[in-house]
Amino acid sequence: MTSTPRVATNAVALGVAAALALSLPARVARADDRASAAAILATLGPGAATDGAAKQARDALERGTRMRVAGDVEHARAAEGLALEWAALARDTARAVAAEAEARAAAVARAEAAARVEREQALLEEAISRSGRLKAELAALTAKDAKSKAKDRTSAVPASAAPHASPTPATRGQSAPPATKKPHVDADAPADPGAR
Length: 196
What we know:
Mean pLDDT: 77
Largest sheet: none
Helix content: over 70%
Oligomer: single chain
Strand content: under 5%
Radius of gyration: 53 Å
Distance between the termini: 171 Å
Number of helices: 3
């Protein structure tokens, strides 16, 4: 019969141990709320765009501290849990703002790259067009030169068949200019006829 009280004592001890084991994570988690909130707020920095969530988290931590000092541990834990929620919201807001800024920067870079590609494509098309025009002009000049050379060959008369050769050589199918006689200049006459 002595074993019954011992079993009861062991059952009570086991029950108390289980209750403590189950409440310990809640106590640790609640104690960690304050530390976690403070750690998150420390990573944000003063200039983070958080839409006031960081201020709300700091205010909740301050309320929790005042409640602990006043001896209201339950409300202090609740305030620290609230501070953790606000701090997480501030962190997520800051991340979202940073992601939006990166997306805007990427969109601007993409638009600039598209404009640059368009300009380069227009310049390339212009250069191809100009190259085509220059090739056409070159082909036309080459054809014209070939025609001119062919005309010169067919119209050229051999020197032995010509009645008399001109004193100056003809250029490209043109006859030599007629010889002109220079007027006689009197050396004693003044250079300006109006000077007499």
